[in-house]
From TrEMBL:
GO annotation, biological process: sulfur compound metabolic process
Pfam families: TauD
The UniProt record lists the keyword Iron: yes
Family in the record: Belongs to the TfdA dioxygenase family.
GO MF: metal ion binding; taurine dioxygenase activity
CC per GO annotation: cytoplasm
Protein name, UniProt field: Taurine dioxygenase
Amino acid sequence: MKITPLSRHIGAEISELQLHSVSDREFDQLYSAFLKHKVLFFRDQELTPDQHLALGKRFGALEPPHPFFPHVSSHPQIVVIETSRGNPPGESFWHTDMTFQSIPPKCSILHAQYVPESGGDTLWCSMAAVWDSLSDSRKQYLKELSACHQLHAFKGSRYDKTTDQGESIVDKKSDQYPPVFHPLRYIHPETQEEVLFINEQFTRHINRLNVEEGEALLSELFTVARREEFHVRFSWQPRSVAIWDNRVTQHFAVTDYGDAPRKLHRVTVKGESV
């Protein structure tokens, strides 16, 4: 196994390894690299749906089927992220997956089935590096605050449908996923890193602050997280794989490929309480 770091704060490419046949010793090395580099990239990986799920289970228990995303018909825990002719991607946001849950996921494994000849890159951001960049006084202030996370970003998206009764599916699902509050400062349970735990897609407002103050603070922090020094960028190829630590990262899908056909499969692992 060869590990090649890709940036100062985040990302490494792993070569000379096939994910469908990783030994226990190799997985220990892989897991250590996962914690250190936060997102790992692989090329030319053949993973059947069963192998994809089996790999995910080595990281922990799997999330149930996603409340909105389509899935592989025979394997409902494998999300399908797909663009086809006449069905372009929706608006993209920086996000940490599923923070609208009381316990957001630990990690995800994304496997490219087919991708456009150009475009469609994904960026990841180290939110530990973002936290570290803040002043001590800012950190101390943020430690006392929490933020509300909600499903609102799916409202009106291509994943929102209207029921026969004229009700939005997102509105209906919101009953099962009421607003949750997560602290702005999260302690990673394995590395003990301090992490800024907000994201542009699901973070709604900051507790204890009025609307104007909360929006100003979120805007300030989002601006810091958009700085390229905290990012790594990955260009997809067929059979590429990305495995990322959802507890310490955000990611952003670049939607610069129109409705060119693109299909990826994602398996997501359950997390621990923040």
